[in-house]
Amino acid sequence: MKTILGSVVVILFAVFFYHAPLAAQDTQSADMRLYPAETIEWKAGPAALPPGAKMAVLEGDPTKEGPFVVRFQFPDGYHVAPHTHPKTERVTVISGALYLATGEALDRNSAKKLPAGSFGYWPAGMKHTAWSEGETIIQLHGVGPWQINYVNPTDDPRNAKK
After folding, report:
1. CB neighbours (10 Å) of residue 145?
2. Strand partners, 95
C-alpha cells in the first residue's frame, strides 16, 4: 500500500511540476506586448485635448478602471489650457520638451522645463497647464479612468463642438 501511495504522490508531483512552468510561461507570454517605435499606432488625440495631438494606447484602457500607459505626440507650440485631473498624473518626456506651469492662469515665467528623458508626477486636483517645445512625445501612465477637467470651461475643446 505504501508503495502504491508513494508512486501516486511521485506521479502527482511530477505532473504538477511539469505543467506549472508551462502554465506560468503561457500566462506570461500571452500578456506580453512589445512596441518597437516604428510599430506604435498613432491615432488622433481624444476630444478632451485641443486638435493636433496624436495618441497611442500601449497598455490598458485610459477610459476604464485600472492601470494604463499611453503616449501623446504634440506638435511644436501645442498648448493645453489650465486643467486638473482627478487622479495623480505621471509623465515621462520621450522627445522634445514639455513646459509645465501650475496655477489657474498661464504663467510662462513660472514654468518648469521637462526635456527629453525627464519624469514628473503631480497630485490629483493640481491646477496646471502645459505646452510643447518642438515636436514632443510624452508617456502618461496612471490609473483610469483618465479625465481632464479645464479650469475655465470655455477652454474645453468638447464645449466648442456643442
Report:
1. 14
2. 137
Name residue, grid cell 522645463: 113
Using the 8-state DSSP alphabet, how is residue 102 labeled?
E
CA distances from 114 to 4, 98, 119, 142, 153 (A): 69, 5, 8, 19, 27
Paired residues of 55 in beta bridges: 43, 72
Cβ atoms within 10 Å, residue 154? 8
Q: In a 3-state reduction of DSSP, which class is residue 34?
A: coil
* Each residue's pLDDT tens digit, 74-129: 999 999 999 999 999 999 999 999 999 998 887 888 999 999 999 999 999 999 99
Q: What is the pLDDT of residue 69?
A: 97
143 contacts 85 by C-beta, under 8 angstroms: no
Q: Which residues have a Cβ under 8 Å from the Cβ of 139 and sit 6 or more positions away?
A: 58, 69, 70, 71, 91, 92, 94
Residue among 131, 50, 122, 53 at smallest CA distance from 90: 122
